[in-house]
Predict the 3D structure of the following.
Amino acid sequence: MATITLTISALPAHVRTARLMAATVARRAGIAATAIDEIRLAVGEACSRAVAAHKLHCPTQPILLQLIDGVGAESASEADGRLPGQVPRVNGSPAQRFEVVVSDRAPAKDAHESADRPLLDGLFLDGDDTPPGGISGFSPGLGLAVITGLADEVRIDPSDQGTIVRMSWPVSAERSPDPSSN
């Protein structure tokens, strides 16, 4: 299992770098070509959400992006409730996953309440107010709903110390060709 850690500043321009890095690492990890765009979009949503939160609460603090190739029992079991050490299996072989973790340090507003609430609650805002980091008429939680639709497995852990968004996708049996080998 290889982990690449990228620390970005709370600037929208760095979201593009995070998306490109995630797509490149996913391709090398063996993610199916059809899922690369989903990964790029999900990482963009997670990082954009983190950048918007940091701009409001802690603009000088970095955002942490971890790209983990070949997640086995330790990370995947946390996300789906399996017992520690219980590896997911596909056709009798251990399943491998590509995991992306975006961690911010902005306090989650009403973290305890939002953890129990469905992601789509409060999706639309009343009035013409545009929330910070949001689209006019939509709440910032829309990005989390989009991530849930794009990633194979998602876990969102909001707290007073920040929010951790874990996303993962299965690694295909055949690895994608390495574009640098041509």
User: Anything to note?
Assistant: The domain at 2-107+148-173 is CATH 3.30.565.10 (Heat Shock Protein 90). The chain has one domain: 2-107+148-173. Residues 71 and 97 are 5 Å apart (CA to CA). The two ends are 25 Å apart (CA to CA).
